[in-house]
Each structure stands twice: as C-alpha cells, then as structure tokens.
Please model this.
Amino acid sequence: MRERRRQYPFDEIEARWQKHWESEGTYRALNPGDAGFDTNKPKYIVLDMFPYPSGDGLHVGHVEGYTATDITARFMRMRGHNVMHPMGWDAFGLPAEQYAIKTGQHPRVTTDHNTGQFKEQLKRLGFSYDWSREINTTDPNYFKWTQWIFLQLYHAYVDEATGKARPIAELKKARLESHPDESAEGCRDYIDSRRLAYVSEVPVNWCPELGTVLANEEVKDGKSEVGGFSVEKRPMRQWMLRITDYAQRLIDELEPLDWSEGIKTMQREWIGRSEGAEVVFTLADHEETLTVFTTRPDTLFGATYMVVAPEHPYVELLTTDKQRDSVTSYCASVANKSDLERTELAKEKSGVFTGGYAVNPVNNERIPVWVADYVLMTYGTGAIMAVPAHDERDHEFATALGLPIIEVVKATEGAEVEGCFSGDGTAVNSGMLDGLATAEAKTKIIDWLGEQGRGEKKVNFKLRDWLFSRQRYWGEPFPIVWQDGKHQALPQSELPIQAPEMDDFKPTGTSDPPLAKAIDWVAYSESASRETNTMPQWAGSCWYYLRFADPDNESAFISKEAEAYWFGADDQAGSVDLYVGGAEHAVLHLLYARFWHKVLFDLGYLSKDEPFHRLVNQGLILGPDSQKMSKSRGNVVNPDDVIENYGADALRLYEMFMGPLEQVKPWNEHGVEGLYRFLARVWRLIMDQNQEGEWQLSMAVVDSAPEGELHRLLHETIKKVTGDTEKMAYNTAISQMMVFVKGYTAADKRPVSALRDFLALLSPYAPHLAEELAEKLNEAFPGGSSDLSLSDWPEFDEEALSHAEVQLVVQVNGKLRDRITLGVDADKESVISKASESRAKEFLEGDVVKTIVVPNKLVNFVVRPRA
RNA sequence: GCCGACGUGGCGGAAUUGGUAGACGCAACGGACUUAAAAUCCGUUAUUCGCAAGAGUGUGCGGGUUCGAUCCCCGCCGUCGGUACCA
Model:
C-alpha cells in the first residue's frame, strides 16, 4: 500500500485545511460579551466525554465518538447555531502515577507529553474543536475550582423539608436557636454530621495492590475495576459525599432526559429504590430492640428466625456464653474473607446461632437470632426477619440449617410453584391478614404496626454514600487542615491547594497516602496539618463541561452570563444538547456529575437541575477478529496508520459507515478502502487529470442548473442526508451520498450548483475534501461562499421529489406476482383494472373475495379457489 | 438468577404508524483498458429447481393475529452488555 499512488492528494489537502482552520480560528465559539457575538443565534453544545490522555495515544474507538460529535457540530453550525464543541483532558489518574513510581519521572511530565500527542492526533483528524476552550483537570487554574466545589459541598447540607442543598450556616443558626444550651462541641458534631462532605470511619474497599481505597462503583465482582486486583474491607477514616440524600431526585429527574431507556434503567437499578417497612422486634432477654427492613411485611407471621450481619453492633449483646466461641470464630472468619470470597464463591450459606431470641410482634413468639454473612451490614438495618417460605435466600439458609418453614402466602390459583414462592398471592396462617391479597396485607400490617408503635413504612436505597478520598499523589489535594482532631476548611482565598513537589511517589505501605511523606508541606501551621488524601479521578470530570463555557475565568468557576447563555438558554431538561461517550460510564461518571450539578443548582449557581439533555453511547469497535481490541491480542488498529494510507476523511467516513453509532461492530481492513475509493470518485467527479498527469477542473462541470433526474437526485439526497444527519444515522446518509455520486458521475454535464450543494452535505463528514473541492469550484465559477463549513446547509424542494408515475406491486393472496406502472394517485378502479390485466391474471382463477388497494403502493387480490 | 439490547446473504449493514426483503459498502467471480500488473470502469452475486421464461423457499426456532408479518402477540433458543445474597 505504501508504494501505491494516491488516488487523490489527500495528504496535501488535509494538511492545508487543518492549518487554515487553525490560523483563521474558524471554529471559535463566541461567548456573550465577545466582539461579534450574535444574540440571534441559538446555542448548541456538542460534547465528547473528554479522554484520559494515556501513553498509547488515540485509538479507533475515540475516533468513532469524536467523529460523530464533529459531524453534528459542523451540521448544527451550518444550520445557524452558535456551536460550542470543546475538548480537554481528564489528566489526573493512575497510569501517570504508576509510571512515576517506576521511573521517577514526574507525572506532570508524562501528562504533558501525552496530552500533546493526543492533541496532535485529534488535529490530524480535522475535528472542529474550539481549542481556545481547552481545559486540563491537572491545571491549577482548573482544579482550583474543583476544590472550590468541594468547599461548597463541605459548607452545605440537605434540607429535609425541600430536599435541596442549602448553606450549612443556615443550619447552624437554626441549631443555635433550637438548642441554646448545647455545648460548642456538641453543636459542631451535629453540624459535621449533616455536611454533604463529611468524614466517616467505615469499612471501605481497600486495594493493597493499588495502595488506595476505592468507591463501591469502582469495585466489580470483588475486584478493582482498574487492574482487576483483589479488594478487602478495612475500616478507615475517609471523606464521603452524601449522594444518598439525592437518591430520589437522581431517579425522578432522570425521567425527562433524552437518554436511552437502557442507561436510565441502569442508573435506576444502581440507585435501587425499594419500598417496604421497618419492623421493631423486642429481644427476649434484653431491653434493646432489633429493627429490620423488609419489603414483605405481609409475611411477618412466617418469620421463623432472624439474622444479623456479622458486623452488627448487637452481635455481642445477643450472643450467650454457650454460643460465644462459635459466634466469635464465625465473625472472625468472615472478617478475613475478601468480598469475592464472601459473595462470588460462597455458594453455600453459612451462619451460627447467637443463642439470643427476639419476639415476633404479631404473635409474641420467640424466634432465634442467627448471625450469617448473607446479611449485609451496609444495607437496610443490617438485620432481617427471615421468612424461609417466601424468600429464596432465607429458604436456602433454613433448609441448610434445619430451621422451620411456615407458609403464609398462597400462590394465586393455577400457578404451580416449585420450592419457595416469593411472588404475590393471598395471605394464610396469618391471623388478621388471612385471605387478603399481598398488596392489601402489606397496607394492613403496616397500619397495625404503626398503631402499636412497632414499625412504619420505609423506603430504602441500594446507593451508598460516595467514598471520595484516595491515597494518591496525582490528584487534587483537599482544601482541608486538621487541628485537635477536627477538620477545618481552608478559605477560598488559599485556593488552589497544590501538591508539593516530590521525587518519591511510592505508596507508603500503610494506609497513609504518599503526601504524608512531604512533612514540610503537611505542616500547615504549628498546630494544624494538611489533609493528605487526594480526590478521586471522578472529581475533575464531574464538572468539566461547565468550565468549557468560561475556561479562563479566574474569579468564578463560570460567569453568570456564560452560565445563563450556554446552560440555561432554553427550556429542555438538561443543559448539554448532545453528549457522546462510552457506555462504561453509565453509572459512575454520569451519576457523580448529575449529583454535583444538582448541588450547584440548589445553591443557586446553575440554571438547570440536570447537566446532560441528550446522551448517546457509542458502541465498541472490535478488532478484525471480532474480539475486543487489546495489545495482548495484537488486534489493535492504529488510526495514525489508517490516516497515513487513506487520509483522515476516509477514516472518519469509514467509522461512520460501519453501522449505527450505538452498535458494537468489528473493524474490517478492506472497509476503509471502500470509503477511500468513494472519496476518490468524489474528487474525480470534479477533477480530471491532464496529459501531464496534473489535476485540473473537469470539463464536465458546467454553470447551469440541474434538470430532470439529476435535479430530483439532488433533492432526494439533500432530504435524506439532512434527515439522517439529524438522527445521527450517519451510515445511511453516506450511502445516499454514494448514490448521488454514482448518478452525477454518469452525467457528462455536471451542474456546478448541484455540486456545491453536494459538497455542503459532504462537508461535516469529509471536511477537508469538501472544502478543497468547493474552493476549486469557486476559482472557476465565482459566487460560492468562501468557507464551506460556515456556509448555509442546503434546503430541499419537496416539489422536486415528485414523480409523475409510480410503480405498484400486484399481489395475489399476499404473494408478489407482478409490478405495474401508473400515474400518481390513480383512482381505485383504474388501478384494479390494470392490475387484473397484469401477469397476475393467471393466478386469479377462482373467486376474488376481496381486493385491497394501498394508494401508490400495491394491490392485493384475495382469491378463494373454486371448489 | 434478574435487567437491557440484539439475532436479516460469504461479511458490515439497509428497509418497520404491518405493504416490492437484502439499499450502500466489502469480499468473490466474469469482462474492458494494459506488453503485464496496479489503479479505474462495466457486469454478476440470498437460496433451490430450470437452457430459459418462470416457479418454490427464505429475516434464529415453534405457534398466533392479519388480505399481507423482518416489523405486532405468545412460547423457546442463542449472542452481547449490565448486575449479582440489597431482605
């Protein structure tokens, strides 16, 4: 291939236009207040999920999503929008830090090198980014505001009455009024317990291999999502963000967004709302009570035992001397298990009897309390009532350990159930509930429990608070110092808090972060020392889309004017008009970003409660072997090679032509060639080679208007490409452009106006070639606009699409028998008469029972053969 | 197990308020141009029977609704993604 002659000079063309766009600032989006800002233009934000600039450079998966957004950005620009299409770098992160540990090279150096390489590669693809808005999460001018947002979280709480965040100062004022006698310390503890950013000593996911803790969302199947290392539970004092206060809103406010149902469902399930009741059990030999959460309070009569989690605070209390040894050793063995062992590998349920008993409030029966690791301390109350007849887990446990099973729900008739029935039915053996359907039984028992003061309705969520600190060097330091064992926020004026220069990035080997080694830095004052944890990588990506609107602002994270214009100018739900990225961020990034956005909205900094209006997830591109691309498989396609051989336009076009954006699809080595040939045909549609082998404008290009078939083909193409580009159905738009080129190549006179319109349609897809050819046309035929990518999108003429005649299908009993041609909108009688004279005639033996005519489409004769 | 998406030629895919299945591209085959090749251009290409005209079959499998089903309904099978003792 390297030796093959180029079919058109894409290398010269592409380099030339990229230089032109850069020097002219062609794709600069203006802010309100900028010279030349046009108030009449509607705004449109097209956003890519910004990349982590890894040392491997750009891969074809990046190119897919970025090309899709680039096409939409260019399309919307041509349709008269002020388009913001920015790019930046999510540059804090593990690989640079690990490289630093290995080589001693500062992560800053690695990061700068990699971002430079990424940017070069992006520019070679001709993406119309507004580079004046470029941001980098590791830039102090950026993370200053990440830290500032953390301070907002720290200084805020959620007001229960409104469900909205408010300044913590308001809470403090109210507290002082309501508890005038409380000690300063007591008040402070109360306030600290309500902050959206708080410190908690809880069992966290500690990954020894990575030397850091991880959020729940970062642990998959008991292993770290990054690297797949094992993770263990370890109690540590860590920063947490109170995302659970937003659980309900994160579900409700998802509704109006233009996201795929699949992603919405994933988020909803992650948040995991479930409705049920809390039931209070008294203990047989103690004053204390044991509260459980259940979604099936109607099965209370079937509760034959209870289970508490091994970490439950009452384990000690409940355990009798006789049982002490076995309980202690059971809890110890559970504590040593990794998450993986406790869930994945635990096929068999295990547990031990504590020796203690609780009393079932509905019948005063004594039921034994067990401790078992199938009950999680982190959900509900960490204790359950076990109804082995109607819960599969309880059933399994009871069966294994020989505990009694009492049926209290009868399945509705007809449905034969095997083993354990966990569906809805009719209550039996349940005293006052007998005969009631499950839903009614639930209501009745909850009311009864309420009257007795033994329980109430309750909603629970699976979502946990967000573990927000990491033991890393290469991340945002917290704007926090510790004094006398208490945390204290640093003032905004001290931001940004920068990490100290260090040579040794290695983990400490303990749970202390590497920053703890910078003794001078940690010593903030004589009595105060700095927080040495850093923020997780998600912090910077939680709000970057906001910063693009006002990237250089030094006095605010975004100006009010820029915020109002870009993020609040219309009434659709969600601010960013189009957001494209991989589905791997369906829960993590999108959940966290929505949470921060809502807090900033509540505090009055933003116009809308949701960040992203329309979300599209691009599908994975597989290797030519239909396997996931990976270095170890050796099936990675490098975009640089493709550009070298076929040009950026061909690469862009091929990736869009492969199939629907959202779909997973394999790379085909020959596929790019097909699109390269198409672009060469476009070139030769307008250019010819003379005898010296030089390219010149084709003699076939004429200054006249298209007529007849050519006219119709043009307008069909405008219509199809416009509609498909709107729908992001880029593959079918490209195929229509191929049809156009085929039709116009066959014509020996090619009207320049039609070619100009076609190049406009092509320009979002193959911007370099389109721009070059438009310029060639302008040189020979004055009157075209000077910058094709900023010209107006062509309009189609509905009249040009009409045909005088139309082909109809003739069917007999639904089978295709012939095709006939008639004038458009021919009346039913003439359609039937012509159809019955067609070749379908010989199949009309028998009685025609019915005749169906679909205007301009088909005729179907329903024939019953004569007996 | 549960949730979601999907299943169409040799391959990527197109077509659905139910109305000509296979657009467009790749690959393959045949031809033109060439000393030859590359590039380019033209043609064929779901499958079975047939010299042909034509006929039969065909959108994962089995049923159903309908004049008519790739599309709607019921039941299976398979692939991919997510999730996993959440009481």
Remarks:
- The CA atoms of residues 18 and 126 of chain A lie 6 Å apart.
- Chain A has a mean pLDDT of 91.
